[in-house]
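Is it possible to get an amino acid sequence alongside its tokenized fold?
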Amino acid sequence: MMGAENLTGVAVVTPPNTHLELAEKLLFENIPLFVEKPLADNHGKAMNFLQNLPDSTILVTGYLLRHHAGLRRMKAAIEDRELQVETLSYQRRTKRPKPAGLDVVSTLAVHGLDATTFLLDAPLMSMDITRFHRTHNSAQIWLRHEGQVVLIDVAWGADEEQRLIGVQGTLRGAVLDFGTGEFSWHIGDGLDEKPLLEQFSGEPLEQEWLYFLEKISTQSPCVFPPASTLMDLSAWLEEHGGQESV
């Protein structure tokens, strides 16, 4: 393909153990690159790859929730102190059966892990794991960071679909359904308080691709998420993820 076509950009959506081999060949030719998550299945190789990227690199890794307008609204609310984080929860439960050979942590939970480091602006490796329960199809991960509590709850083969990110503080909370784009505010501590609703209808997958194409169009070098975040995620998955054999 590289010999036969003038490539504007390439998406690598192959199995994780092939990502870096393909990425290195493409970046050697200075071709803008989109790589599905995770960047690699080996932390040492990921570190070496990220630490030796050319200055002209355009590399986008597929953590698409970072492009979700509702999640970006939640992060802005935290930064502007509209929303205090005492607890953070991520739920992704799907009716789909687990694909053979894929680990539930590095496939489903990884998006919750990335949303956590994005919202709290802290590396995963700085957080304490207070509890970690996993089965063949599910995982529940409890983290603590400077008094903040995080719960990541994911499962294949669930009874119903759930796509929720919630933040709760002392005075108010917010919940994003990242499937429908509904963002609800819960004011006060009463359970009967009617939430205030905002709606974010844009598809994060579309926004992710528009971001990649904009970088190609303007020839703006970038590594997204930042290399430090990708290395942090890689280190955490190396230590706690795991890969089941096919």
Observations:
- The mean pLDDT is 91.
- Residues 97 and 157 are 5 Å apart (CA to CA).
- The chain has two domains: 10-62+205-240, 65-202.
